């Protein structure tokens, strides 16, 4: 290879490397400019943490109308909190997730670091609405949803996700006002391919 061709080749390699570095710089600028909420690419994990996909979180919260006061009993990293424009009590058991929620400093959100099944309505008061994506392990979604109904005011509405299994159908569908099956793969971006149900329960 002649000196000229060698110089030209090195220049092409340098230009390519510079382009790649510029693309990487822009990517990191986009990431660092994002809000520090549940959608940010943070290395935070907890047992049974499968965040609600953003589009599904928006649909779930949209089913609640315009509540004045809402309970989020499985807050995770705050995907649904981002979409609730009201006073919220958020319950989360995992300390590392609570630490993230505290750092997000949302207005009108009170955070309780507790196992939701140990919280009673006498401690929090009643709510116009409940928005929840409970843990699914060992049918705990059934227990969490049934417990959450106790926190609703008369006329209040709960919107929740649960696994799509015959056992959940027998336990919950007779209580539900709506029961929408979400195809398997909706949570694939969050690390699981399970099929689930989006349900609502209105308290008489």
List keywords for this structure.
7-stranded mixed β-sheet; 204 residues; 6 helices; Rossmann fold; alpha/beta; single chain
Structure description:
- With 204 residues, the chain is α/β, with parallel strands linked by helices.
- It has 2 domains: 33 residues; 149 residues, 3-Layer(aba) Sandwich (Rossmann fold).
- Helices cover 35% and strands 21% of the residues.
- The protein has 6 helices and 7 strands, in the order H-H-E-E-H-E-H-E-H-E-H-E-E.
- Strands 3-2-1-4-5-7-6 form a 7-stranded mixed β-sheet, sandwiched between helices.
- Helix 3 links the parallel strand 2 and strand 3.
- The longest helix is centred in the N-terminal third of the chain and has 31 residues.
- The protein is globular.
Overall tally of domains: 2
Helix content: 25-40%
Query: Could you state the order of secondary-structure elements as H and E?
Result: HHEEHEHEHEHEE
Q: Structural class of the secondary structure composition?
A: alpha/beta
Please state the CA-atom Rg, rounded to the nearest Å: 22 Å
CATH superfamily of the largest domain: Vaccinia Virus protein VP39
Strand count, sense and barrel status of the largest sheet are: 7 strands, mixed
What is the approximate shape? globular
Question: How large a portion of the residues is in β-strands, by DSSP E?
Answer: 15-25%
CATH C-level class of the largest domain is Alpha Beta
CATH architecture of the largest domain: 3-Layer(aba) Sandwich
Distance between the termini: 84 Å
Average pLDDT works out at 82
Strand line-up across the major sheet = 3-2-1-4-5-7-6
Number of strands: 7
